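Human:
If only I could read backbone structure tokens as easily as an amino acid sequence. I am handing you a single protein, as its sequence and its fold in token form. I hope you can help me see how the letters and the tokens relate. Thank you; the sequence and its tokens follow:
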Amino acid sequence: MPQFHIVTDSTAVLDPSYVASHDIRVVPLTVIFGSTEYTDGVDITTNEFYAKFDQSDVPPRTSQPSPGAFAEVFTGFADSLPIMCLTLSSELSGTYNAAVQGAASVPGKTVHVIDTRSVGPPLNRIVTHAQELRDRDVPVEDALTSVRTLIETQVFYFTVPTLEYLRRGGRIGGAQALLGTLLNFRPLLALVNGRVEPIRKIRTFSRVLDQMVDLISEAKDTHGSLEVLVANAQNDEMAHSLIERGTPFSVPKPVAIELGPVIVAHTGPGAVGIGYFPLLPEFTPDSSMTPSQKPHGKAGTAGS
């Protein structure tokens, strides 16, 4: 019997069929075009978002879920099992704080709200890792320890055609220092402790990809086995290149997870990224307990 329930938010870009088959509850964020609001993953698809993005004169905005939205999900579990709630980084959104407030408003429920300091593909993998532990009937306290270990080991690099969307959304973090200095350069960015931080300025997009792959190769030399993740936001060609070049370093072969509307509202179309987790001992290929490691996200065409 499962030892705990799992809740996350829509920036984990989980495939709906995976969510349904594993009884994971997803609390959606909101995308706003002008005065019209759309619930992420519910009444706007990624393709619909891109179409509206291209047609809109006003850049999209996003909004976090309310504490009440989390409380409603927490109270929706009829039993008394503890709940593990995994949210995107508190440095990028107020979603974590909303989940904490929602948990505090629900008496009689044990809710562990975890700030994953992540978003997108790394958050996707953290959630699926928690699910794999639940499938093996791991007690919640042990699962929390393993999840926190995974959070501490995550590394994710990405690049965007422009920093303007990150600036407008207030998610630019330390990359603020690059504003106004990127003429003829491309930024190499990273998630560092949940914040967007600059790594370096590079002259061409292709060279940014080279740098990303070099960093993954160095990590392979340091850690041994890696699980490599690729992000894609309408940049199939470069995502495919990262998959092919990251394959020698990864167990299993990486796939491209298509970023959802909330994330792309802040990166803009054309973002691409690659990151990794050092493979945890319980998920080495020779372990008889190893479940499938394929990320259960919305794979982009580059990964198919």
